[in-house]
Design brief:
The complex is a heterodimer of chains A (314) and B (169). Chain A is α+β, with helices and mostly antiparallel strands. Helices cover 28% and strands 25% of the residues of chain A. In chain A, strand 10 and strand 11 form a beta hairpin. Chain B is α+β, with helices and mostly antiparallel strands. Classes of the chains: A alpha+beta (314), B alpha+beta (169).
């Protein structure tokens, strides 16, 4: 019996049966996870922080052979992944002892969020001078209905270009997302893919600035770049609006709550931002609302874990 | 937390929560990190604090309000506050010197600063303020003012005094 009084212990092998899943069917499920492109990128960036990277660079580029083939690449100079470590790194939901300061939690984010955007996800890494490569190919899995990862690259122009950059930049790990099926989420009917993507890029920039604002401010030794520019931290609470009459007002408290028999202190802060008409730095304030959520949806709770913004609004 | 997230009047209120990382799962963080379902008991405690009445800066002249009353009031009533301040020179209006009585003892050359005033609403009703002040002692380089905390207008006056408070005190 488990603590809830549910019997979970079989008494003989006849009482159990393996629970198989259909790889092609599961792949459809992974691909349809409701991640925005910004969320997917942020999840991959989490892994780079957890790998102790000092430089992280995200780029969204177009295959020069075609202007309708965008791809996304994330480089970092962290610990790298060896060939032996690749298997566990790619296992979905891998359980391992994680430091309490890590941004990753369940061992799922990077894989699921990548597949939510791309049919081809290549993990290319260098550790102790040796290169390791794995590719999760939704096309391969769907076509052969097999839960296999590939140990060779796609041979695409994008891979070749990124491999060159990997060497030039002396990076440790590169995550390449190709064949972006997730583009349908931000495509506008009346706009080209390039124009739609350009609008999405602005939102991603804001999303990264909001998500990693405190991380960027606390870990100044880590450089996070998006499309060649430093990601600027964006504080959703607008502390720079400090006029005593109409500026931001904060009240910080500690809430003590009971969790599994332990008394846990949680820091909370109530904030009232200025009325839109009273912004002193209008450009900076409007930037807060230029991501995936607009001003009305930016009210409510802002949940942080290890200084990383997990969820906001509502 | 405050119902419909597209409700225009709520958009100035935000609450930061720092989740203890060791209790992420218990706080309802889902594997995709896209959603958190906070424990009901925790939300109840947050709500209880939000429902406490307190002064929120200068909102409604420092009257005691709950969190939601304060951000709602600011949204509905303070959209022109900056403009009004700008009309008075971009700064809170300078304190108005007390008029000298036609006769009586000579006045000090530097009158003690009085709370800042804002356009149109120059001072709270003078009777109210007078009833809050129990005594004024201007001996030496400091002035000691004794106030009656139980009187109406006490919070109004304190809010204004705090605006004049020197940083770090």
């Amino acid at each position: 019996m488990n603590p809830d009084g549910i019997n979970t212990k079989p008494t003989s092998p006849d009482e159990v049966e393996s629970w198989d899943s259909d790889p092609a069917g599961m792949m459809e499920y992974y691909k349809n996870q409701p991640y925005t492109l910004g969320q997917s990128i942020a999840d991959i960036v989490d892994n780079s922080y957890d790998a102790n990277a000092k430089r992280i660079e995200v780029e969204i580029l177009f295959d020069s052979s075609s202007d309708d083939k965008p791809y996304i690449v994330i480089f970092d100079d962290g610990n790298g992944i060896s060939d032996e470590e690749m298997k566990s790194a790619l296992r979905l939901g891998v359980r391992r002892n994680r430091s309490e300061t890590e941004l990753g939690v369940f061992g799922i984010g990077m894989k699921l969020s990548s597949l939510a955007q791309a049919n081809e996800v290549t993990i290319y890494s260098k550790k102790d001078g040796k290169i390791a490569i794995r590719r999760i190919s939704a096309s391969h899995i769907s076509e052969h209905n097999t839960a296999e990862v590939l140990k060779f690259h796609s041979g695409s122009f994008a891979f070749e270009a990124c491999e060159d950059k990997f060497i030039e930049g002396n990076w440790s790990t590169m995550i390449l997302l190709e064949d972006l099926h997730g583009a349908r989420r931000f495509m506008s009917m009346n706009k080209s893919l390039q124009d739609s993507l350009s609008g999405e890029i602005k939102k991603i920039k804001t999303h990264l600035g909001l998500t990693f604002q405190r991380v960027l401010e606390e870990r100044r030794d880590v450089e996070l770049k998006f499309n060649g520019k430093d990601v600027s931290p964006i504080d959703p609470f607008m502390p720079w609006e400090n006029n005593p009459y109409y500026g931001t007002i904060s009240d910080e408290r500690i809430v003590t709550t009971e969790i599994e028999g332990n008394s846990v202190d949680v820091k909370i802060r109530f904030v009232i931002i200025p009325h839109t008409n009273n912004f002193d730095n209008t450009k900076k304030c409007k930037n807060v609302n230029s991501g995936y959520k607009k001003a009305n949806d930016m009210q409510g709770l802002y949940l942080y874990r290890n200084s990383r913004l997990i969820q906001y609004g509502g | 937390m405050y119902g419909d997230t597209t409700e225009e009047h709520n958009k100035l209120g935000k609450i930061l929560v720092d989740l203890p990382p060791e209790y992420s799962k218990q706080f309802g963080l889902n594997p995709t990190k896209s959603e958190i379902k906070l424990p009901f008991e925790f939300l109840e405690r947050v709500k209880a604090i939000a429902d406490e009445e307190k002064a929120w800066g200068d909102i409604k002249r420092g009257k005691k309000l709950t969190f939601s009353q304060a951000f709602d009031y600011r949204y509905r009533n303070e959209g022109k506050k900056k403009k009004k301040l700008a009309a008075s020179g971009g700064q809170p209006a300078q304190p108005t010197p007390r008029p000298h009585p036609p006769s009586g003892p000579p006045q000090p050359s530097q009158p003690a600063p009085s709370p800042p005033t804002r356009p149109r609403r120059q001072q709270p009703a003078s009777n109210t303020v007078k009833q809050v002040v129990l005594s004024i002692d201007e001996t030496g380089s400091e002035t000691l003012v004794r106030l009656d905390k139980s009187r109406d207008g006490y919070e109004d006056l304190m809010t204004k005094l705090r605006m004049w408070q020197i940083d770090g005190n």
